[in-house]
Amino acid sequence: MQIFNADLHIHSPHSIAVSQSLNLDTMVATCKQKGLQILGTGDILQPEWLKYMQHNLQKTPEGAYQYDDIFFILQTEIEDMENIHHVVLLPDFQSVIKAQKKLRNHSKNLFNEWGGRPRVNLAPAELVDEITDIGGIIGPAHAFTPFKAIFRQNQYSNLEDCYHHALKKVSFIELGLSANTDLADRLECLKDVSFLSNSDAHSQSPRSLGREFNRIEIDNPSFEEIESALRRKDSRRIILNVGLHPKLGKYYNMFCYKCRRRIIFKKINESTTSIFNKYRITPQFVEYYSKDLERARKEFINTVAKGKMICPACKEKTSKNFKIKLGVYERIETISSYNKAQHPNHRPPYINAIPLIDIIRSVKNVKSSTSKTVLNAYEKMISQLGPEYEILIDLSLNKINNYDKKIGEIIEAMRNDQIIYTPGGGGKYGSIKLDLDI
Ligand SMILES: [Zn+2]
Ligand SMILES: [Zn+2]
């Protein structure tokens, strides 16, 4: 058996808002920097991207696809008629053509230049049937995000209601950037399902591609082996999920649908009659104050879940009513079966990671993530110490401290889960607060 780091959900330049410089060469370069060996192709049903992949990927004797030193899995994301996104992996190019034939009558944009993530007019269970009929594997994408996801507010609260008879054919759920295993394992209905942590990257930047990945123990990097790992067959398995801390994701916290302010709670000592009256508005947040923080939050979340909480900032500034929406954390709170995660025995550990670029940025006190100083420091560090994920997860702290003590301290705090985060929400990423003594 061998160990591979795999990111199984990305996009191509044929999806909206994707970098036009994303191609096999730039993808491979980032994979080597990050320490990934297996990557999803993204958007494999899109005709031009398919042609590009057919032309460039070589088949290995074990049946894996390869370009340069990196292995590729034919992959796409599909939106169904209920606006739920699904990650789809297909075994070979023949099955991609079959999928195009099956789905073409159900989709208006499958063959469009910008149809990288096609929408099909099929119910979730029907889509699962179509994909598994041709040997593909499928599961819900970024399962908890407030948009386009199976568990979003006012959508499903368990897998069975969504997939019915097709549930046993669903091979995994993708956690998404704002969730991790500790959050997802609060749902009893997920105890038998494997979790994937993928980047959903829209660019080859090392901040995006591979920001989440799965460490998989398999015999070789082929589709069949990955399918076995997801089904936990023949000792094939996912041995580690690595992803952003959920608070760094864009949808962790509840937010106003209109002004996108995030809602947070702060403790005060005076008692207030109603927490709904005591708040402060800042450019990015509405901060509510309460003496009894837990009770106040619960009450607030219940009102938001009923669709009855109006944004006080919008009300004050425009006198219009806009609703607060649940973030990933609060949505899980409302549909969870347990207060604390109950991990099934098969569940691998999850590492809450911070992209190395962001660590360097905070040490150098640089705001921009595209700063040349930061990128140069990133590349230099990797050329001397090895791929990013070796540095973040595996390398001894001594070696990192010898290179840069400040970076070493943050990585140590990250490994011990001692970082303080400002949570993301409403489409804005969270950030790390470095109150460390450095
Ligand atoms: Zn999606
Ligand atoms: Zn608002």
Report a brief summary of the structure.
It contains 15 helices and 19 strands.
Named at the architecture level, the CATH assignment of the largest domain is Alpha-Beta Barrel
Structural class: alpha/beta
Ions, cofactors and other ligands present here are: zinc ion
Mean pLDDT figure: 94
Please count the helical segments. Answer: 15
Beta-strand content bin: 15-25%
Largest pleated sheet: 10 strands, mixed
Number of strands: 19
> Helicity range of the residues?
25-40%
Shape call: globular
Poorly predicted tracts of residues: none
Assigned CATH superfamily of the largest domain: Metal-dependent hydrolases
Domain tally: 3
**CATH class category of the largest domain:** Alpha Beta
Please tell me how large the radius of gyration is: 22 Å
CATH fold annotation of the largest domain: TIM Barrel
N- and C-termini, Cα separation: 42 Å
Summarize the SSE layout with pairings.
Elements: E1 2-7, H1 24-34, E2 38-40, H2 47-56, E3 58-59, E4 65-67, E5 70-79, E6 85-90, H3 93-103, H4 124-133, E7 137-140, H5 159-163, E8 172-174, H6 181-184, E9 194-196, E10 213-218, H7 223-231, E11 237-244, E12 255-256, E13 262-267, E14 279-281, E15 285-290, H8 293-305, H9 312-318, E16 324-325, H10 328-335, E17 350-353, H11 356-364, H12 372-385, H13 388-394, H14 397-403, H15 405-415, E18 420-422, E19 431-433
Parallel strand pairs: 1-2, 2-5, 8-9, 11-17, 13-15
Antiparallel strand pairs: 1-10, 3-4, 4-5, 5-6, 6-7, 10-11, 12-16, 14-15, 18-19
Helix pairs in contact: 11-12, 14-15
Bound molecules: zinc ion (2 copies).
One zinc ion is lined by residues 256, 258-259, 261, 311, 313-314, 322.
